[in-house]
Amino acid sequence: MSLILHHLNRSRxxxxxxxxxxxxxxxxxxxxKRDPQVNLAPAELIAIHPMGKAPLLIHDGQxxxxxxxxxLHLLEAFDPEYRLHPAPxxxxxxxxxxxxxxxxxxxxxxxxxxxxxxxxxLEDSLLSQYMAGEREKALGAIEACLxxxxxxxxxxxxxxxxxxxxxxxxxxxxxxxPETSPVHAWLTRVRSRPAHQRMxxxxxxx
Length: 206
Fold this sequence. Notes:
By secondary structure, this protein is of the alpha+beta class. It folds into two domains: 3-83 and 195-203, Glutaredoxin; 93-193, Glutathione S-transferase Yfyf (Class Pi), Chain A, domain 2 (Up-down Bundle). The chain is built from eight helices and four strands; from the N terminus they run βαβββααααααα. It has helices spanning 14-23, 67-78, 93-102, 109-119, 126-148, 159-173, 183-191, 194-203; strands spanning 3-8, 28-32, 56-59, 62-65. The protein has a four-stranded mixed beta sheet with strand order 2-1-3-4, with helices on one face. Helix 1 (14-23) links the parallel strand 1 (3-8) and strand 2. The longest helix has 23 residues, at 126-148. The model has no long low-confidence stretch (mean pLDDT 91).
């Protein structure tokens, strides 16, 4: 069995390192650095996948792109006991899928757009004002979830928490979380996990 993760520094691909560490899978990490001129992924990733983006997973020769797809593939392959995702028929399975995919979809887009708006000097544009409202709405949904339960999919930690981690740690680092936000307590819980700490030791070399 061959498992290779192509990782880009300072990117969402760190979540897949975290997930692999949670799963205890044996994998090879291939590091890539952003182009210093444009801050984008290097051109050599295009040789692996036509989108030229990380993360990319190569599992026994099969290339898999998109973080959500990679996460589900890893769970199917390495979590047969359903430690990190709900089994079919479980009452929290819908919530798990909602947050797993929301981490790359409607919940995350406003946070991602903030990065693009800052990079292009559009912080004071009408689009920026619109996205600020969308960020507030997304954060409201996140906080409502974490007020009702300790983790995104319910009472137990899951891969949905892994997928939501990057954007919430980034929001905290930017001062985007109110002091009273339940996200702070959630961050304390997930950061206490040995797999998260191993991920941070690995990404410290980026």
